[in-house]
Amino acid sequence: MPRNKINISDEIEHLSVLNEKGQLDKDLEPEISETLLLNIHRTMLLGRRFDERLLNLQRQGRIGTFAPITGQEAAQLGAVAVLRSSDWMVPSFRETAAEIWRGRTMESLILYYSGFNEGGRIPDDMNNLPVCVPVATHLLHAVGLAWALGYRKKDDVVMTFFGDGATSEGDFHEGLNFAGVYRTPVIFVCQNNQWAISVPRSKQTRSQTLAQKALAYGIPGLQVDGNDLLAVYSAAKEAVERARSGGGPTLIECVTYRLMMHTTADDPKRYRKEEEVQEWVGRDPLPRFQKYLIENKKLLSKEKIDRLETEIKEEIQAAVERAEEQKSKLKEPLEMFDHVYAELPKNLKEQKAQLAGELSGNKKEDGHD
Ligand SMILES: Cc1ncc(C[n+]2csc(CCOP(=O)(O)OP(=O)(O)O)c2C)c(N)n1
Ligand SMILES: [Mg+2]
User: Fold this and answer.
1) Which single residue of 6, 193, 265, 302 could bond 258 by disulfide (Cβ 3.0 to 4.6 Å)?
2) Ligand 1 nearest-atom number relative to CA 191
């Protein structure tokens, strides 16, 4: 027959373990130690409350722009919780919870969002790459890093995070292709939060799923409920084990939702409906996971959560105070202009002068001068 079907063996699966009503599929429940479950929950709650605090600080003019993660905690933590510290985490710009899990301090994040170079410095013993704002360029860094691990005969793996919008960038396709050809140990975690600033997922691609893009590169792809901590964990575990044992890369699409604004410079009310947001509030990963820990695992109670809330509030407050104290001792963020060019181009000279003007204005307002 001249026109036969090619049998592409892989099918794209969607994995859900703890559905939005908090009902558990016992057969799919991953084995996670009690300590790990509680640590993940603590970091989820911390990530949520830290986001709220950062938003307040931004609105008070005490930090600059940042990208909130509210609603995406399970997609991040379910994945990084599988890594060991010698593995690498390659973030984009919306991974606060994952970064905290990997040891980044809250004060370093506050310094970063305040424009200080010191906030971007990764300690030498921490295998995280810095925040990457250019969409999808870090996928190539992740793949290169994973390739280098092979040269060094290490069995560490690389996990990289990016959004639905990133899948339309050439770098995404180059990264997946290279990783597939050279079987590099990379786990590509796509946080499909339905929006790329104001561009909806429906306008990003005609593909039914983002996970299926893996098929073209000959690598496994899986779609999971990204608001289901247990599903994300299971998918990540499978992918990390495969990568560590020489089986190459995996693409995981975590279907989730950005409940807050794109960044603090954006007003989502201008492009999306409140009903849509409310629908996703009903799928919130945090109360769902708490219900699991209270009812199924008997590890939490309302009282324990209240105590944790108080502890976390104090921890965040202490970090804010430490960051503000450090800021008062550091040089102006003007230093950020000093490290890329030997001779500053004209436009950056202008920006530097403008910032210097704004800073001296602020200083007078704050009465520090
Ligand atoms: C190469 C590049 N183009 C455009 C931008 C401006 N930009 C910043 S975030 C963003 C949308 C990213 O959407 P997505 O990949 O879905 O990630 P999300 O912000 O939803 O986490 C755009 C277009 C950028 N930072 N880099
Ligand atoms: Mg997005």
Assistant:
1) 193
2) 21
Q: Are residues 278 and 344 in the same domain?
A: no
Residues 238 and 110 in one domain: yes
Residue 316 makes CB contacts below 8 A (sequence gap 6+) with: 46, 49, 50, 53, 106
Same domain (yes/no): 358, 279: no
Separation of alpha carbons 284 and 229, rounded Å: 11
Output the six-digit token pair for 231.
Answer: 């599903």
Parallel/antiparallel/unpaired status of strands 186-192 and 195-196: unpaired
Note the maximum CA span of the chain. Answer: 84
Count of domains observed in the chain = 2
Residues comprising the chain, all counted: 369
**What is the atom index within ligand 1 of the atom nearest the CA of 166?**
15
Per the confidence metrics, is the pTM higher than 0.85?
A: yes
Please give the distance, rounded to the nearest whole angstrom, from the Cα atom of residue 262 to the centre of ligand 2.
8
Same domain for 250 and 358? no
What local confidence, expressed as pLDDT, does residue 367 receive? 36
Contact 244, 155 (CB under 8 A): yes
Q: Whose CA is nearest to atom 21 of ligand 1?
A: 163
Work out which ligand 1 atom sits closest to the CA atom of 262. 19
Beta-carbon neighbour count of residue 1 at 10 Å? 4
Q: Which ligand is nearest to the CA of 194?
A: 2
Averaged pLDDT for residues 64-84: 98
The percentage of the chain sitting over the pLDDT mark of 90, rounded to a whole number, equals: 87
Q: Looking at the annotation, which residues are catalytic?
A: 258, 262, 271
Range of the domain at 345: 333-366
Q: Is residue 181 part of a domain?
A: yes
Q: How far is the CA of 361 from the centre of ligand 2 (A)?
A: 36
| Residue of minimum CA distance from atom 12 in ligand 1 | 196
Amino acid at 107: E
Same domain, 291 and 354: no
Residues 265 and 184 reside in one and the same domain: yes
Kindly state whether residues 279 and 361 are assigned to the same domain.
no
